[in-house]
Design a protein that fits this description.
The protein has about 140 residues and is an all-alpha fold. About 65% of the residues lie in helices and about 0% in strands. The radius of gyration is 14 Å and the shape is globular.
Length: about 140
């Protein structure tokens, strides 16, 4: 839905705001933001684009995820099964090649919890933003 797309766009912007200093200039990060927002506007894969953005953002700021041993998230939050397969697909895809992936609410919750814990551990003062909470509410209502 268009409301969910707007919520995802705000979540992406909140992530940038939380991890990048105002005085920093980063052309690669701007390109990632621009490409992600364009893809979000042009497709129906809003949650996949959000996760792609999170993976790419972490990579660009020096916290690339080692999925075999993701530091700081706890064993209970590690990705397994369908969530792990989805993560592997998203991390290696080009945004222009993103296509629909079916996933359950359970997979959605696992993915979001994983990213929430990963960001909290690696980014000082990072907490789940209101925009991400709103995305969660929208998904859980459907």
């Amino acid at each position: 839905s268009s409301i969910r797309k707007v919520a995802v766009a705000f979540a992406i912007l909140n992530l940038i705001d939380n991890v990048v200093s105002e005085s920093e200039s980063n052309e690669n990060l701007f390109a990632l933001l621009n490409d992600s927002l364009r893809a979000l506007n042009d497709s129906d894969y809003d949650l996949l684009i959000l996760w792609y953005f999170e993976i790419s953002l972490l990579r660009q700021i020096g916290f690339e995820i080692n999925i075999d041993n993701p530091e700081g998230i706890g064993k209970e939050n590690r990705l397994k099964g369908r969530a792990l397969k989805l993560f592997e697909k998203i991390k290696d895809v080009d945004l222009s090649e993103m296509n629909a992936e079916q996933f359950t609410r359970g997979t959605f919750k696992k993915m979001n919890r994983f990213f929430e814990k990963y960001f909290e551990y690696h980014i000082e003062g990072m907490k789940q933003t209101k925009a991400l909470s709103f995305v969660n509410e929208l998904v859980n209502k459907n």
